[in-house]
Amino acid sequence: MNKKKINVCIVGLGYVGLPLALETSDKFNVFAYDNNKRIISNLKKIKSDLLKIDLDVLKKNISKTFFPTDDIKIIQKSDYIVICLPTPLSKNKDPDLSYVTNFLNSASKFFKKGQTVILESTTYPGTTDEILKPFFENLNYKIGEEIFLGYSPERIDPGREINITDINKICSGYSKSCKKKVLGFYNKIFKNVILVSSNKVAEMAKLYENIFRNVNIGLVNELKIICDKLNINVREVIEAASTKQYGFMKFAPGPGIGGHCIPIDPFYLTWKAKEKEIHTRFIELAAEINSTMPDWIINKIMDELNKRSSTLKNSNFLIIGVAYKKNVADTRESPAYKIIEKLLLNGAKVDYYDPFVKEFKINNQKIKNIVLNNKNLKKYDFCIIITDHDEIEYKKLYKNFKIIFDSRNKLKNTKKVIQI
After folding, report:
1. Is 261 annotated in the active site?
2. Which of 88, 165, 200, 383 has its CA 20 to 30 Å from the CA of residue 227?
3. Same domain, yes or no, for 387 and 244?
4. Per-residue pLDDT reduced to its tens digit, 208-259
């Protein structure tokens, strides 16, 4: 790798692929490939929809070591191809690998001997060896001799202020020679690379990381429901428990879960386990609890309004934050969708404020994004804090609303602030 400038193609320029491509362009020539022409056009203009990417790096490397393109033929000029494509679920919650397989089929005639192909997309254990390996074998390549295959789970956390090179990087490969290729590549980019014994182990590690979070969030959300019935402050309970110096990790309750990982990854393992006739009861229960939190929140709001002789119908609600987590523009699987949908179905009027999300739709109905000022705030009866972005003026909310429903514990629990 030190003998010449390596050409790397990063496939898919979303929350995973684009940061990786920019970081890699400091070490190698990077072909940043995406079939979305708007993404490529914006990158060439030093623009991106991903607010947290380093535009200075893009500006420094564009046309020097970073080359945005929607031409799939660029594959034939690449030494390393890193696949960072979406892996969503179908309507039946089965893995949908169509983005990956469609890319492979479209690029099939542009692969060449000596290339290393690495999958970074989250998926079920066995994907790399059971889908990518047969694909290249059908192209008459010998795996480990003519084409090298590996897997490395991404650990990008949108909104977290951390250089991706500081993130511990897990990787593996199909054979000894594949592992050597993959390890050598990532060692040039990341400070600490951990080689595991097989692609399956690396694939399972990614799922376990997010299932761990999903299960613990489900546990603390169930605890919130119990504490509410027992008239106990769940946040105080969590803070008290977190004083233990060992054997405890703090998780906070919320309005539900969102993003591409936590709500989706457990079902990849559930689907794979069913092949072996294993019922993943614990994992499925946690997912069920988390998915019901928006309904619990709406019922909690209705109960509180009934105490005040009010109803959802014709009440004006302002939603604070519709992204799935704070300080990002990503709304994938956000609990805001279900909460706003329930409000609208019950006759409420809803607008929102989110400094990161410029447009938000429910069933093709556009929800108004307001300017957060005192004049506008006087138009609403109630406020619901769903996403706790740091730059929101919470004191302004407290000053202008008589009732605030707070799902993130951003405001002190007083008579006018109801924790949900």
Report:
1. yes
2. 383
3. no
4. 999 999 999 999 999 999 999 999 999 999 999 999 999 999 999 999 988 7
